[in-house]
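User: Fold this one for me? It's DNA polymerase I.
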Amino acid sequence: MMMTPKNQTSTDKHLCLVDGSSFLFRAFHALPILTRPDGTPVNAVLGFSNMLLKLLDDLHATHLAVIFDSARKTFRNDISADYKANRPEPPDELIPQFPLVRDATRAFNVECIESPGFEADDLIATYAKQAEAEGIEVIIVSSDKDLMQLVTGRVSMFDAIKNKKIGPKEVLEKFGVGPEKVVDVQSLAGDSTDNVPGVPGIGIKTAAQLIQEYGDLDSLLARASEIKQPKRRQSLIDYADQARMSRDLVRLRNDVPTDLAVSQLQRQNPDPQQLLTFLNEQGFKSLMAKVHSRLLASGENIPDIGGRPVTDPATTPPSTTQYELVQSTAVLQDWVTQARFAGAIAVDTETTSLDESRAELVGISLCVKPGHACYIPLAHRHPEPTAELDFSEASAKKTSSPQAEPLIQIPIDEALDILKPLLAEPSVLKIGHNLKYDIVVLRRYGITIKPIDDTMLMSYILDGGSHGHGMDELAQLHLGHTTIKFKEVAGAGKSQITFDLVPLDTALAYAAEDADITLQLHQMLKPRLLAEQLVTPYETLERPLIPVLVDMECEGIKVDRENLELLSQDFANRQATLEQDIFQLTGHEFNVGSPKQLGEVLYEEMKLEGGQKGKSGAYSTGADVLEGLAAEGHELPAKVLAWRQLDKLKSTYSDALVEQINPRTGRVHTSYAMAAASTGRLSSTDPNLQNIPIRTEDGRKIRHAFVAKPGCTLLSLDYSQIELRLLAHIANIDVLKQAFHEGQDIHALTASQIFGVDAKALDPAMRRKAKAINFGIIYGISAFGLSRQLGITNEESAAYMKAYFERYPGIQEYMDRTKQFCREHGYVETLFGRRVHVPGIHERNAARRNFSERAAINAPIQGTAADILKRAMIRVPPGLAKHNLATKAKMLLTVHDELLFEVEEHAMNQTSDVVKKIMESASLPAVHISVPLTVDVGHGASWGEAH
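Assistant: Here's what I get for DNA polymerase I.
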C-alpha cells in the first residue's frame, strides 16, 4: 500500500519507537476542540492520526511500535508518593480520546504497546536495549528530555514537530554531558514538572560541571566534603539520599517484561477497510481523502465505506518540495506553460499591507502540483542604510547583511504582461485562499483573475462553525503541516519589516509554501463538496459573491471629511464638559477612561454598594455594572456611560474614518470578511461598518457623514423583518404568516396574542415587550435574558414566554426539533443547504451547552436570511446591466439586511424598482417562502437620510 518502507534493502533493520503520549498531547494542543457527530471530542485523535500518517510516509524503518503510558501510577510512586503529584488532571475533552488514539494506532496496523506499572519511557528503553543487542538501529520519535539518556551510537531520537534529529551532540548541548551521564545530571538538578526533588540550589549547568569534574553521582556524593563552595557543599551532604532517590526516579528501566519481541514489531501495511472505516466513524473526511489517494497510487481496491465512497482527490501529497525563485522571463514563461498544461494553478500575492485598498504588490507565487511551486519577486528592495531592522534568526543565518546579495528581479511591468493572459485564461482554473484579497490588489495593476476557486470558502462551506478557516490552521488540521509564520520572516512588533524588505531566499520559502499549501488544500477539500452534497451552497452562494464584493470594495464610499472633523470636535467638547461634571461630583480629577481609577472612586471613595473585584484586583466597571448603578439613581455612573459613548464614537468612527480615507481615491474602502460568522453573514473591517450605533442620535450622526458624490444620491434597500418572516415560514405559524400577508403590525399582533388585549387598546409598553420577545425568540433568549432586557423579574419574563409559546406552539416545536437534529448531526442547515456546525451542542457544562442550543435555534433563521441577501447581491449586477444601469448605479455597502447604492439622480427610481424586485424574489426558484419578503426603500444625500 502507500506506507511501505522506502529505500530499504533486505538486510537493513531499523526500529522506530513512537512516544505515543507525547504525540497525543501535542496533537491535542495543536488543534481546536473538534467533535464528531455524537459529540465526542476528536481533535487529538485527528492530530495524532495526521502525525502518524506523515511519519509513516517519511519513515525509513522496518519495525515500528507506538508506546503509551498505561496509567499515572507506576513503580516510581512507590519510591516517592509525590512523583508527578503536581501534574494537573488531563482536560475533560482529552479523556475520552485516550482509547480512541489507541484505536487509531491499530487502524493503521501499528503495534500499540503499554504495560501496567511502567511508563512508556521504560518500555521504550527496554525495546531500545533489545534492538541494540540484535544489531538493529533504533530511532525514538519524541523530544522528551528523559529519553535522551538512551541515546547511543545506534539509538537516536527524532523531534517530529521540529523535524530535528537528536544524537549525542544534541544531548551534550542540552545537558552539558554525554547521554551516559544524563541520569546523574538530572538526579542533581531534579525536575519540578515531575516532582523529582534533586538537590536544592543545583541546576542543570552546575550539575553538568560537577559530574564532569567528579565523574558520576556516587563519586560526587562520596567526595562532597571537597566542594569549595560552602552552601553547595552542605546541600550535597544534606541531600545526598534525596539525590540518590531522584536517580531512581529519572533512570529508565530497561528490563520491563514484554509480550512482543522486537522481531514481532515488523512494519505492516494497514487494512484499507479497517482504516477507512475508523476514519469515517470519526468524521475525518479530509484524512479519508488523503488515505484514499495513497490507495489509488498503489493500485489498491477502494472499499465502499458506509455506502459513501470517498471522492478521488487526484494526486498524492508530496514527500519533498521543490521551490524555485523566478528571476528571468524565460523561467517565468516556462511556469506559464506548465500552468496551461496542468489546467489549474494556485496563486498567492505578497504585498506591503493587509489593507487591500492600499497594499502594493511585492511578488506572486504559483503552484502547479503539490510540492512544486515558485515565487516571482517583483518589488523587493534593500533596506535604507540607516534603517534598524531586526531580521529573524533564519534570515540572519542566510545573509550576513541585508545587501549581501544583489536583488535580481524581472521588471514588474514585464512580469505582469507575461502573467496577465494566464490569470484571465478561461481554460486554467486559478485557486487561492481568500482570493478576494489578491483579486483586489491585482485589479489595480490591470489584471483580472478568472475562473476561480477559493479554499477558504470551501472550508467555510464544509466546516463552518467547527473551526477557523485560515491557511495555517487548515494546513495543520488537514495536512498535518506546520506552516512558516509571517513573524518568522518579517519579525514582530516594532521591529517588523514589510515584505518588500524580506531577503529573497527567505521570501521564497514563505511565499511558495502559501501557494503549495493552497493547492494541497484544494485537492483535499473540493472532493468533499461533492461527497458531502455541498457543491450547491459553494457554487451558488459563496464563490459567485467574490467578484461582487471585489467591485464594492474597489468602489468604496465617499465620506464628508469636514463633517467628521466637526463631529470629532463636538464629541471632544461634550466629553470635556462631562469630565468637569464628573470631577465636580467626585471632588477631584482622575482618568475617566481608567476602569481601575473609576472603580476606586465609585466603591472606595463614594462607598457605593455592590463593588466586585476581578482577578486583576480592580473593581468591575463594565457597561452592565454602570447601567445598574445609574438605574439606581446614581448620577456619576450615568455621566461616565455618556462619556464612554462619546469616546467610542470619536475614536472608532469620527477620528478613525478620516484616517481611513484612501488618498488615491478620496473614499473609504471597507473589506468584507466572507468566512467569519458561522451563520454565513458578512462582516466588515477597516472600517467596521456593521457596528455603527444607530439607536442613538449621536450614532446616527456618523451615518450622515457617508455621502453621495455630486450628481448622485444614496439609495438604501433593507429587508423588513426578514428573520421574523423566516421564523413564521420555518416554524409554520399560520397566524404569523397570515399577519405578514395582510401587512399587519407583527409586534402589535404578538402583544395582543400573549397579553389578551385588543390590538387597538395596546399601550406602547406592551408592544415594546412583544417586540423584545419576537426578536429574542429568534436568538433563543432565556427568561433571564428577557428579564434583564425589559427590566422585569424572572417570574414575569417566564410568564410572558410561556404565554408566547402557548399562542405559537409551532415555535417551541421548531426549537425542540432543531436542537434534536443538531444533537444527532452536529450541525443545522439553512433552507439553501448551508451547514452551520455547533460543536458545543453536547457540552457537559450547562451554560455552554445552553449557549450552543440557542445558536442552533438561531442559525437556520439568520443563516437563511444571509443566504437570501447573498443571492440578491449576486443577481444585482446582471440585473442592473440588463436595464442599462450598470454605469449609473453602483452597489457600495451591505450591512446586515441592507444594500446601499450610489445612483445617478435621474436613474434613482428605475434602480430602486429593479433592485427591489431582485431582493424580494431572491429565494426563488430554489426556495418558495410562504410569506412575502418585503423591502423598505429610502434615499438621500447621505446614508443617514437614506436609511
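One thing worth pointing out: Confidence is low (pLDDT under 50) at residues 1-11, 307-315, 386-403.
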